[in-house]
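TL;DR need C-alpha cells for one chain.
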Amino acid sequence: MCSALRLLLAGLVLIPVQGTQAVTGSTFEVSATISAGCLVVGGVTTYGVLDFGTRSALATGVVGTSLGGTTVTFQCTPGVGLSMKLDGGQNSASGTRNLKRNGGTQLLAYQLFSDAAYSQALGIGTSATVSYSDPTAIKLPVYGRTTLPGNLPAGTYTDVVQVTVTW
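>> reply
TL;DR here they are.
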C-alpha cells in the first residue's frame, strides 16, 4: 500500500493541470498632481530700483519714474492670481512715504502707483493685483512720482520699501 500511495502521488505530480497559464501582464496606475504657484527667477536680492534721477536743488515740478534696473521676474502657473503689498518705507510719516537726505533730516514726499498713468495709488499696506499677459515674464508694476519744491538742500535722498508678493 505504501508503494501504491507513492505511485499515486507520483502520478499526481506528473499530470499537468489543463488551462492554467502563468500571468505575464498586468496594469498599474500613473498619476501626477500639478500645484498652482509661482517662482522667482534668479532669486531675490532686490526687486529693482525706483530712481527719480539727478535734479537741481532749485528744480520744481512733478517728476515720475518706474521700477527699473535689474528687476525681478516671476513665472506663474497660468491663471494664478498674483498680488503685492508695499509698506511705508523707512521714512514714512502720517501716511506719506518720504525720501530722506543721507546724513540729514530733510524729507521729500513721494507716491507709488501701479500704472503709468499714475491713477492707481499703491497705498501703504494695501494689496494690489498684479496683472500679466505672459505667465513666464511677470514684472512688478511700480511707478513713482514726486513734486520737487525747489528749496531742498543738495544731497542724495533715499528710502527702502518692503514688498510682499503673494499668490
